Amino acid sequence: MELQGVVSAGWFSIALLAAAVAGMQGRGKLWWFFITAIFGPLALFFLAIWSEPLRKRGAED
Q1: Using only C-alpha atoms, what is the Rg of the chain?
Q2: Would the pLDDT of 33 be above 90?
Q3: What is the pLDDT of residue 2?
């Protein structure tokens, strides 16, 4: 039972980390939090290797 709590805490931490990375890249934090909560480290890996960051909203050309 104790292992399940550790795994849950780790999964939640990975989702928070992905939200922070997405925010730094100009992507939606909330969406990436939920995507990572479902797919876990695979979503974080995809977010990290995604090379072209989106433009911030309201950025001038």
Answers
A1: 13
A2: yes
A3: 86
* Beta carbons of 15 and 25 less than 8 angstroms apart: no
Prediction pTM value: 0.72
Widest CA span of the chain, in angstroms? 54
SS3 of residue 25 by DSSP: coil
Phi-psi region of 6 (alpha: psi -120 to 50; beta: other; left: phi over 0): alpha
Q: What angle do CA 53, 55, 60 make, to 5 degrees?
A: 150
Q: HSE, CB side, 13 Å, CA atoms: give it for residue 51.
A: 0
- By C-alpha distance, which of 47, 46, 51, 8 is closest to 28? 47
Torsions phi, psi of 53, nearest 5?
Answer: -70, 150
